[in-house]
Amino acid sequence: MVLKVIYVTRHGFRSNWVVDPQTGNYSASIRSPTNIPSDPALAAYGEEQARELADYILKLDPPVERVYSSPFYRCIQTLAPAVESLGITEVRGENGLGEWYGTARFDHPSPASSKLLNEFFPTYSLTYQPIIIPSTNGETIDELHDRMAYTLSRIITELDAEPGQPKTLLLNTHAAPVIAIGRVLMGRMPDDLREDDFNAYTCSFSKFVRRHETTPDCERDIEVWDAEKKGKIPKIDWRDGKGVSGGWDCEINGDCSFLKGGEERGWHFSGDEAFDTSSSLPAPFEGKDGCIENSRPRGGSSRL
To answer: Which of 45, 166, 181, 289 is most buried (CB neighbours < 10 A)?
Structure first.
């Protein structure tokens, strides 16, 4: 047997931060549990969403067997109610599923250590080794998609080879990766990257079903990511309808019908979100509902 179903979710409504696009200094009015300003906890409303998501996940057929998460606090926190209710004993923190930051001359924040995250979430694995570590100087949109393709290809290949032969996988990540995951699984990169092809609402739920039970030989033999190669991502041939690991079909796209608030805080690409040090860049600004949103870098929009 091989992996047959991938469930994809986005984190819940979170606290916010601001970044100075000229200096790269991140700050937040609400202290993060990890002391990393861009690694906030869920807001109270997000915690409620996470419980509603858990209730939905508990009813899934086939049920969840393996869980992977972005290593940022809000993603692991979003999964916590479901993990507890399902009796899952291990959540694998995968940096390859982490947040997308635009390219910059400064370093973007990295997530907390596995040791610290395990203190907050006892099921967070201390032994799992991430497949890839994104560049701290950010990525282009194409690089983000290639990161998702490589990460998913490796995860799927490893799970296919696991003695337990799991059939289902649950992922939790961020808005931009949610969209990129849908595209690389199905093998569809739109001509207009701003296209709203995959829904990325807070605590949204998507389901992908595998087309073929075999992974192409060329993908199984792909080189292993090497940190010494300064962020070079091994290439997976996923475009033109191929998809990762033989391709997947989307049966559920960003469903929020189980959430009391429905579809909220959607997001889509509007540019590469590259930063520079020009003095003409906007300062941090106040967003909807009195929340402080991320400063908008050149060509992009803030992710919530």
So the answer is: 181
Picking from 54, 86, 74, the residue whose alpha carbon sits closest to that of residue 258 is 54
Sequence-distant (≥ 6) Cβ neighbours of residue 81 within 8 angstroms? 50, 51, 53, 54
In this predicted model, what pLDDT tens digit does every residue of 74-101 receive, in sequence order?
999 999 999 999 999 999 999 999 999 9
Q: Length of the chain, please?
A: 304
Pairing of strands 5-10, 168-173: parallel
Mind listing the pLDDT tens digit for each residue in 132-173?
Answer: 999 999 999 999 999 999 999 999 999 999 998 999 999 999
Which residue shows structure tokens 């199905």?
186
Packing angle, helices 44-57 and 73-86, rounded to 10: 40
Query: What mean pLDDT, rounded, does the chain reach?
Result: 88
DSSP character string of 269-298: --S--B----TTSPPP-B-GGGPBPPP--B
